[in-house]
Amino acid sequence: xxxxEIRKRVLGxxxxxxxxxxxxxxxxYEAQGRWDEAERLQVQxxEIRKRVLGxxxxxxxxxxxxxxxxYKAQGRWDEAERLQVQxxEICKRVLGxxxxDTxxxxxxxxxxYQARKRHAEAVALMQNCVALRTQKxxxxxxxxxxxxxxxxxxxxxxxxxxxxxxxxxxE
Length: 171
Prior knowledge:
It is a single chain. The chain is mostly helical. 82% of the residues lie in helices and 0% in strands. The chain contains 8 helices and no strands. α5 (77-94) packs antiparallel against α6 (100-115). The radius of gyration is 18 Å and the shape is globular. The protein starts with a helix and ends with a helix. The relative contact order is 0.07.
């Protein structure tokens, strides 16, 4: 908190270092489960980044992603998904569909779909993510491995769901 206040006073509230301190403090609040405080800082940071850097700057996109993850943690799925869809569209357009940040956005949105029981959408998006990650980062890359793990689990879960619907059985 002191670091942020000093940077605001010395560098100004819109200086990149001040915004980084704001983001770091918000992430600390998140780790402590202080979601409302984290959200307040993240909303403020995102608004400033949009105004100063523009809505398509990579730092703005990171702020957007962080706020969406906070919304998810609070169970505010509609708001999280809306931000993630917007962020992914901008990433694809500005950074390209194969950029690592775009693939992370794709992964995050797929996880949101899965958490919301939108399994077919989650699997389709994660299949695309896995294919691109494998092509660009390699199968052994940790992010690729995590995406593959999610995809396998979701496909397995979908198979169980389909089988249960067909047989009328519960596991």
